[in-house]
Amino acid sequence: MKYLYLAFLLTCYHPIKAQTLQLHYDARHTLDPSRNSKNYATLYFEYFKTPDTGKLIIKPGSFLLKLQADFTGEQQNIGKYYMQVSQEVRFWRPKVFLNLQYTGGLGITNPRQYSYYIVNTYSVGISYPFKLGSAYMSSVLNFRYVPYTKPSRDLMYTLYFYKGLFNYRAEFAGDFSLWTENKDHGDELTANLHGKRLSFFAEPQFWYNVNRTFAIGTRVNTNYHVLTTEDVLQIYPTAAIRVKL
Q1: Which CATH class name applies to 6-244?
Q2: What one-character-per-residue DSSP string does the chain give?
Q3: Residue 52: which pLDDT band, with cuts at 50, 70 and 90?
């Protein structure tokens, strides 16, 4: 879903433009073999920009593009693809932004007839970036629309955070999201279900900057009602490297 870094967090403070490439090794099969068929690598590309909005009538805030490819296929081919695009804007003086977001993707399975779409999701709401001590935060409340055969219309709350450690030699960053969604998607598989399902997703990260370009670290993928409808909290840390391009 939604990724952190300064794209969301520093909107009120400094104009920033950056892009990163990350490679993660996810050992979730080793940690939880009953729910995961294999360990795999994931490649992320992220571009974010936070322009200086102080003197413009239409004040664009942070922009984020995130592309994710999971190498879960046969012979380590790409088996899952995900993308997120987010733009913030304001037309007023208070530094509360209109937040617009799109997410979507697809997955390839074996056997192929069980391949799937990550259904297009459209979100609109408000965001408020702020500082808490030396940490940068951004609070986002969105209306979320998922166009299933029986569409789901829900609220989604996300909190982003970032803190530099040891004179920015290390970084602690992350986000968590909480939302509801219809159990009945209007298809045969979910036709007998009723009501809403509460979901939770978080991805706290820790990075150690070897130099200005290269970092090593981890991300802890935390899911509840995201990968499965079972009432189980799934926590899968990764081993990762990051390059700032």
Answers
A1: mainly beta
A2: ----SHHHHSTTT--EEEEEEEEEEE-HHHH-TTT-S--EEEEEEEEEEE---TT-SSEEEEEEEEEEEE--SGGG---EEEEEEEEEEESSSSS-EEEEEEEEEEE--SSGGG-EEEEEEEEEEEEEEEEETTEEEEEEEEEEEE--SS-EEEEEEEEEEEEEETTTTEEEEEEEEEEEEES--SSTTTTT--SEEEEEEE--EEEEESSSSEEEEEEEEEEESSS-SSS-EEEEEEEEEEEE-
A3: low
Query: What's the pLDDT at 74?
Result: 87
pLDDT in the model for residue 51: 64
Domain residue extents for the chain: 6-244
pLDDT recorded at residue 145: 98
